[in-house]
């Protein structure tokens, strides 16, 4: 059994208590509050229990009863007390009740309380709370729900809940919502239905958008000109799924959507190739830094091609254009007095005989005491760090303790630029779509006060500093790398300045993970503001949280997680990978990739919901109407469906416009859910056997359904481009449907008229079987090395150890191939005596 709960959700308390009391074994999974675990419900329902049969329980009462029955118990008095507690769901909004409630404040605020709370029997309530507060099971459940965060633990859950209605509001109806809306069913008015029917009748636009992009794409007068960048991936490694969803995939979805909307859009990206990471990788593989860059640039390009990332141009930073533009910005900053010199104490590894770059020092964070903070930033608290501030630092290459040495460097004078930066930020964050974490991280930087930031490093591999007093140094990668956006665009077109020196006409969207925010919201904008050359600054900064792997982090060294090319070896189509990564996209909080969840979402949402509806709609045309779309005579029920679908389309557009990519995807799935319910209620496979109105009704249901399938193909295009094209190919959908449906606030029209002949219909998705998923989970779980070590420690038989070592070597060989390395082990050096 699997129990799905969410942090801060009081509804989950009882079921966790029941597990504690009974001792029933059950996997507990923490999911987002908005996660739709039960596939056939139109809105999230947590807690939810997935039974061995594949069915779901999603009532806390039912789950508790089931848990007790599994344990061989009837519903005890204790269990029934918990059921009674759900009778009245309240939130205390005044403080005069609090002193009566000795139970933890979280439960005092949110637990379902007996009706007699307001009857004046406060002593009874107090005695009851005293009793419950002493129970270990309740204390444990509260700790699990709150995750050790106190009242803050329930904040995100409560913020998503509708405001409670007053008794007067409930009595008089409807106030701001009706019972149907509270239950998740949208109320559709007569006016809504007629408006939807009118839109439906208008048909497709006469002039479809051009299928082929005309390069170079340049800003145009009178158009919405969008420049999209995704954080440049480091060239020295194969990207994992978290890298892909955090940057290039999210930007790709938005770019595809923007083109469907008719925006004039350019999407550029490339590999970030300078810095110590590249030097070390070259040393590891016995190659020059340039050879490493050439090798991994090809690997990155092939991975993104397989994931169908549709860059307009994918470049790199090791170019003459990079040097030219970076040095020009440097001299402008220097000439305008925004650079200062200072002597810096740096960490030097005497064993490696070199100054250590920030990311090759690791130690304890001076701010939050996180033990694995890097020399430039702490992953836990997000604060930027100077490497010498780390406590107990170590060289990450050799694990020796470095020493402090002095070196003269150049700094960007951020305090001198702070006023300009704040003025620009006030405008950009208030008018653009900045994610909440991007605003928060930026505010924390400004709150702490800006400090000069070093822009030079004692390295060989980098853009050379042109100043004669610093000719032995190169630019620090976080000064240099964002300039790569400009140089990559300059490699794409010699008219790059029309994009990058045109803030009046161009909107700039930056996509990244949250650890990159300060460099894009503070450091890089200050560089461009200080250059005083009319540069285009970011209008919309879109940052994700982190994607974890199962219950841990991605780790190449431990073989944990799916990295780049490995996804191709799973025989799971790239569109399914795209769908799941976007479904769990960490928009508001960290999320996790889970094999079991991926299988469940594939089988429930893609196969049983989306694929089932589209396949049935098209098959009805083929089977019942000889492949031609039948005539449609709309009734009220059909108009209601058109209005519901039109509303979901409008929500999709509003969310995508705001770059709420994950949330928008849910509206696609809602439409196919509406369609499945519509087909089930109307049963066209039965009505087609009748005559007259019965047969006509079957035709109308089929015609409406197949047109909804056509709409879904368009809405899916940014997410699943191959599936989208396959649907349109099967339906022989006109190209103009792509340009019509997403215009304005959304236009659901009849794209497939009566008599339109569709093509051959085949299933869109395949079921992911349990044994297949378990094998993949084991393969990418990084467990084989631990197993070998455990067997050796137990002094197991040599044959057993040898067999497991062979499996480990095979996994390492697969990893090496995925990384583009030789699968053969490096020759061993002789041991010193």
From TrEMBL:
<dbReference type="InterPro" id="IPR014758">
    <property type="entry name" value="Met-tRNA_synth"/>
</dbReference>
<keyword id="KW-0436">Ligase</keyword>
<keyword id="KW-0030">Aminoacyl-tRNA synthetase</keyword>
<keyword id="KW-0648">Protein biosynthesis</keyword>
<dbReference type="InterPro" id="IPR033911">
    <property type="entry name" value="MetRS_core"/>
</dbReference>
<dbReference type="GO" id="GO:0006431">
    <property type="term" value="P:methionyl-tRNA aminoacylation"/>
</dbReference>
<feature type="domain" description="GST N-terminal">
    <location>
        <begin position="1"/>
        <end position="75"/>
    </location>
</feature>
<comment type="similarity">
    <text>Belongs to the class-I aminoacyl-tRNA synthetase family.</text>
</comment>
<keyword id="KW-0963">Cytoplasm</keyword>
<keyword id="KW-0547">Nucleotide-binding</keyword>
<dbReference type="GO" id="GO:0005524">
    <property type="term" value="F:ATP binding"/>
</dbReference>
<dbReference type="Pfam" id="PF19303">
    <property type="entry name" value="Anticodon_3"/>
</dbReference>
<dbReference type="InterPro" id="IPR004045">
    <property type="entry name" value="Glutathione_S-Trfase_N"/>
</dbReference>
<dbReference type="InterPro" id="IPR036249">
    <property type="entry name" value="Thioredoxin-like_sf"/>
</dbReference>
<dbReference type="InterPro" id="IPR029038">
    <property type="entry name" value="MetRS_Zn"/>
</dbReference>
<keyword id="KW-0067">ATP-binding</keyword>
<dbReference type="InterPro" id="IPR009080">
    <property type="entry name" value="tRNAsynth_Ia_anticodon-bd"/>
</dbReference>
<feature type="domain" description="WHEP-TRS">
    <location>
        <begin position="773"/>
        <end position="829"/>
    </location>
</feature>
<dbReference type="InterPro" id="IPR009068">
    <property type="entry name" value="uS15_NS1_RNA-bd_sf"/>
</dbReference>
<dbReference type="GO" id="GO:0005829">
    <property type="term" value="C:cytosol"/>
</dbReference>
<protein>
    <recommendedName>
        <fullName>Methionine--tRNA ligase, cytoplasmic</fullName>
        <ecNumber>6.1.1.10</ecNumber>
    </recommendedName>
</protein>
<dbReference type="InterPro" id="IPR001412">
    <property type="entry name" value="aa-tRNA-synth_I_CS"/>
</dbReference>
<dbReference type="InterPro" id="IPR015413">
    <property type="entry name" value="Methionyl/Leucyl_tRNA_Synth"/>
</dbReference>
<dbReference type="InterPro" id="IPR041872">
    <property type="entry name" value="Anticodon_Met"/>
</dbReference>
<dbReference type="InterPro" id="IPR014729">
    <property type="entry name" value="Rossmann-like_a/b/a_fold"/>
</dbReference>
<feature type="region of interest" description="Disordered">
    <location>
        <begin position="160"/>
        <end position="186"/>
    </location>
</feature>
<dbReference type="InterPro" id="IPR041598">
    <property type="entry name" value="MARS_N"/>
</dbReference>
<feature type="compositionally biased region" description="Polar residues">
    <location>
        <begin position="160"/>
        <end position="179"/>
    </location>
</feature>
<dbReference type="GO" id="GO:0017101">
    <property type="term" value="C:aminoacyl-tRNA synthetase multienzyme complex"/>
</dbReference>
<dbReference type="Pfam" id="PF18485">
    <property type="entry name" value="GST_N_5"/>
</dbReference>
<dbReference type="Pfam" id="PF09334">
    <property type="entry name" value="tRNA-synt_1g"/>
</dbReference>
<dbReference type="InterPro" id="IPR000738">
    <property type="entry name" value="WHEP-TRS_dom"/>
</dbReference>
<dbReference type="GO" id="GO:0004825">
    <property type="term" value="F:methionine-tRNA ligase activity"/>
</dbReference>
<dbReference type="InterPro" id="IPR023458">
    <property type="entry name" value="Met-tRNA_ligase_1"/>
</dbReference>
């Amino acid at each position: 059994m699997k129990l799905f709960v969410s942090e801060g959700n009081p509804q989950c308390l009882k079921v966790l208590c029941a597990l504690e009391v009974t001792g029933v074994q059950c996997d507990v999974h923490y999911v987002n509050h908005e996660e739709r675990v039960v596939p056939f419900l139109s809105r999230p329902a947590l807690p939810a229990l997935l039974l061995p049969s594949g069915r779901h329980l999603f009532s806390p009462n039912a789950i508790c009863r089931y848990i007790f029955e599994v344990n061989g118990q009837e519903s005890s008095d204790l269990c029934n007390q918990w059921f009674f507690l759900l009778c009245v769901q309240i939130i205390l909004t005044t403080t005069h009740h609090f002193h009566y409630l000795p139970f933890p404040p979280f439960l005092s605020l949110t637990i379902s309380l007996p009706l007699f709370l307001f009857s004046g029997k406060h002593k009874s309530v107090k005695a009851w709370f005293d009793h419950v507060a002493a129970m270990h099971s309740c204390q444990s459940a509260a700790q699990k729900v709150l995750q050790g965060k106190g009242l803050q633990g329930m904040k995100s859950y409560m913020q998503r809940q509708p405001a409670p209605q007053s008794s007067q509001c409930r009595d008089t109806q409807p106030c701001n919502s009706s019972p149907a809306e509270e239950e998740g069913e949208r109320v559709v008015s007569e006016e809504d239905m007629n408006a939807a029917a009118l839109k439906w009748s208008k048909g497709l636009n006469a002039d479809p958008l051009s299928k082929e992009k005309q390069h170079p794409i340049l800003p145009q007068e009178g158009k919405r000109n969008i420049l999209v960048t995704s954080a440049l991936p480091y060239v020295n490694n194969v990207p994992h799924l978290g890298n892909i969803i955090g940057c290039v995939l999210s930007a790709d979805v938005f770019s595809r959507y923007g083109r469907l909307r008719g925006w004039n859009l350019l999407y550029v990206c490339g590999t970030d190739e300078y810095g110590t990471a590249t030097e070390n990788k070259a040393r590891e593989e016995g190659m020059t830094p340039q050879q490493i860059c050439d090798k991994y640039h090809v690997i990155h390009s092939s991975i993104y091609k397989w994931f169908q990332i549709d860059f307009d141009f994918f470049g790199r930073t090791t170019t003459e254009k990079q040097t030219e533009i970076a040095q020009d910005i440097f001299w402008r900053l220097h000439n305008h007095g925004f650079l200062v010199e200072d002597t810096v104490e740096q960490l030097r590894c005497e064993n490696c005989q070199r100054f250590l770059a920030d990311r090759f020092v690791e130690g304890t964070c001076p701010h939050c005491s996180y033990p694995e903070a890097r020399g430039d930033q702490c992953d836990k608290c997000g604060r930027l760090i100077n490497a010498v501030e780390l406590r107990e630092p170590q060289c990450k290459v050799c694990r020796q303790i470095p020493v402090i040495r002095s070196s003269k460097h150049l700094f960007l004078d951020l305090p001198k630029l702070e006023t300009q930066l704040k003025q620009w930020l006030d405008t950009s964050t208030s008018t653009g779509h900045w994610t909440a974490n991007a605003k928060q991280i930026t505010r924390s930087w400004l709150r702490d006060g800006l400090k000069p930031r070093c822009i030079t490093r004692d390295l060989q591999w980098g853009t050379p500093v042109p100043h004669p007093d610093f000719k032995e140094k190169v630019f620090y990668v976080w000064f240099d790398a964002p300039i790569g956006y400009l140089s990559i665009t300059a490699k794409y077109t010699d008219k790059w300045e029309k994009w990058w020196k045109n803030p009046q006409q161009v909107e700039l969207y930056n996509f990244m993970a949250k650890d990159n925010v300060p460099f894009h919201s503070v450091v890089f904008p200050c560089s461009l503001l200080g250059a005083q050359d009319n540069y285009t600054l970011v209008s919309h900064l879109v940052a994700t949280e982190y994607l974890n792997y199962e219950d841990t982090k991605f780790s190449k060294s431990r073989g944990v997680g799916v990295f780049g090319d490995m996804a191709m070896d799973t025989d799971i189509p790239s569109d399914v990978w795209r769908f799941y990564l976007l479904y769990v996209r960490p928009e508001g909080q960290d999320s996790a990739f889970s094999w079991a969840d991926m299988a469940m979402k594939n089988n429930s949402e893609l196969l049983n919901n989306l694929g089932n509806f589209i396949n049935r709609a098209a098959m009805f045309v083929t089977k019942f109407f000889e492949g031609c779309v039948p005539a449609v005579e709309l009734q009220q029920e059909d108009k209601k469906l058109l209005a519901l679908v039109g509303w979901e389309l409008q929500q999709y557009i509003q969310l995508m416009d705001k770059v709420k990519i994950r949330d928008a995807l849910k509206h696609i799935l809602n439409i196919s859910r509406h369609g499945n319910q519509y087909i089930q209620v109307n049963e066209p496979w039965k009505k087609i056997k009748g005559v007259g109105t019965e047969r006509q009704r079957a035709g109308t249901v089929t015609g409406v359904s197949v047109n909804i399938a056509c709409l879904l193909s368009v809405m899916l295009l940014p997410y699943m481009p191959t599936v989208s094209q396959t649907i349109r190919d099967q339906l022989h959908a006109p190209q103009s449907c792509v340009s019509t449906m997403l215009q304005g606030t959304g236009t659901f029209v009849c794209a497939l008229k009566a008599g339109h002949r569709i093509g051959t219909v085949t299933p869109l998705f395949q079921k992911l079987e349990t044994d297949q998923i378990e094998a993949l989970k084991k393969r990418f779980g990084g467990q084989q090395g631990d197993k070998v070590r455990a067997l050796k420690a137990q002094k197991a038989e040599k044959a057993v150890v040898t067999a497991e070592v062979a499996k480990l070597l095979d996994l390492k060989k697969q990893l090496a191939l995925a990384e583009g390395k030789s699968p053969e082990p490096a020759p061993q050096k002789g041991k010193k005596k």
